[in-house]
Amino acid sequence: MRALSRTHRTYVVATGVASIVTAANASQGAYFSQSWGWVALAFLVPTTVLLILDRVTRPGRLRTAFATFMGALAVWIALSSLWSISSAASIREAERALVYVSIALAIALVLRRGDAAGVFAGLLVGAALVVSYGLATWLFPDRLGFADDPFNAYRLAEPLGYTNAFGLLAAIGVILALGALVHGRKAVVASLGASLLPVFGTALYFTFSRGSWIALAFSLAVTLVLDPRRLHLLWSLAVVCPPSIFAVLLASRQNALTTKDSSAVEAALEGHRLAGALVGLVLASACLGLAARWTSLRVPLGGKVRRRGEIALTAITLLVGSVAVVAWGGPSTVLTNIWGRFEAVPVTAGPSLNERLFSISGNGRAEVLGVAWDVGRGQPIKGSGAGTFEYIWYEQRPSLRIVRDAHSLHAEMFMEVGLVGLVLLCAVTFVPLIAAVRSRRVRGVAPAAGAYVAWLGAAGLDWHWEMVGLTLVALLAGA
């Protein structure tokens, strides 16, 4: 059988990744177990076929380590059913972990070093399709259904079903779109990346997810640190930002779309107007993206200019950060104030959801994390069994809050599968970071690492591990 050319293989990989990302996230984020089987098969089938045809190359040490640690974590989760307070819950978690094992095996055995462009393109297209559909449901409620979900409290969540997960996917889309703008080899790729920024930004705003905005900030910082083209990235960001900023400001002024219990008629009228404006802003952003690319190609930065620019950027960042910390009373005072506000009960000043973005209350996460930590210390090695947090919470909860997960991947792993499981999780999630640092000069690696860090950071304070569709996006970005 004749091997595919590099170009054809890139198209095949991109199409496969985009299809899986779109299908998994369109199916309620693959949160429910009914989706796990076909998601796992989507990765296991090509792996098995290539193994049968002997078309698999020996994976490198990092990919081998990634698959090995993921497999070990899944085995430990399954073993926890032996001592779990709910064997059924632990077996269910083992089934979810097997999906991640199938992804890790595909990463190790199917993907090759030259597939990075295909994976990157597939992730961007898949995220764009899902987020665009979700935004369309918000702007055209008369055509696609009015958002009336008590769980999400009038915040954009479809088709994932969870606002913070949808917001994180939109934030990842922003970083990937910036990567396409800066690292795309063709003008059409750069233009496409720029055109998607207002769409991702507007969709992110309508989730009113504070954690997603924070994850976006951290991922952008990581991208800037790793990317050797950081000055081009900053220049491109400055050029293409205005349409996206204007789109977000315009979205914030739509009362029916930002106020709880608004009527469907008012929401539809405002959504249609905003959609028309958004089309113009998308075109403007695409044109600005081309202008930024044209300038970058014709004004090359020499090594001396680049080094001076990076030194100046570092100095300005450190100076601004130091002044801000001193102005707020020093590091200890800043941390104390942040934790105090995180523990505080959220203040609901009114029906407007715009006000939600300016609060850093954890919405009860401090209580949830406290229970997970206390129970984990009681059984620090093996834990109480995977998937058992919900049962223990209802036994020991300090309030009447209804919670199923610990809202922290690491705290929940420590409580449920102990230090052994936590160490294996850290090993799995650390491997892509090592790879990112080692290959940071390769095109697209820095923004992909930023997308991965966005998920990793957000998972520390939310239950994104349970959203299989979102987690597979992160794992493929880490690939």
Task: Compute the average pLDDT.
Answer: 87
> Which of globular, elongated, flat, extended, rod-shaped describes the shape?
globular
List the secondary-structure elements in sequence, H or E.
HHHHHHHHHHHHHHHHHHH
What percent strand?
Answer: under 5%
Task: Give the oligomer, counting copies of the same chain as homo and different chains as hetero.
Answer: single chain
Rg over CA atoms, rounded to whole Å, is 23 Å
Helix/strand-derived class?
mainly alpha
Write a compact overview of the structure shown.
The protein is mainly alpha-helical and 479 residues long. It has helices at 6-26, 36-52, 61-79, 87-109, 116-139, 141-144, 163-183, 187-207, 210-226, 230-252, 255-258, 264-298, 303-327, 331-343, 365-378, 389-396, 409-438, 445-459, 468-478.
Descriptive notes:
This protein is mainly α. Helices cover 72% and strands 0% of the residues. The protein has 19 helices and no strands. It has helices at residues 6-26, 36-52, 61-79, 87-109, 116-139, 141-144, 163-183, 187-207, 210-226, 230-252, 255-258, 264-298, 303-327, 331-343, 365-378, 389-396, 409-438, 445-459, 468-478. Helix 8 (187-207) crosses helix 10 and helix 17 (409-438) runs antiparallel to helix 18 (445-459). The radius of gyration is 23 Å and the shape is globular. 47% of the residues are buried.
List the helices and strands and how they pair.
Elements: H1 6-26, H2 36-52, H3 61-79, H4 87-109, H5 116-139, H6 141-144, H7 163-183, H8 187-207, H9 210-226, H10 230-252, H11 255-258, H12 264-298, H13 303-327, H14 331-343, H15 365-378, H16 389-396, H17 409-438, H18 445-459, H19 468-478
Helix pairs in contact: 1-5, 1-19, 2-4, 3-4, 3-17, 4-19, 5-7, 5-8, 7-8, 7-9, 7-10, 7-18, 8-10, 8-12, 9-10, 9-18, 10-12, 15-16, 15-17, 17-18, 18-19
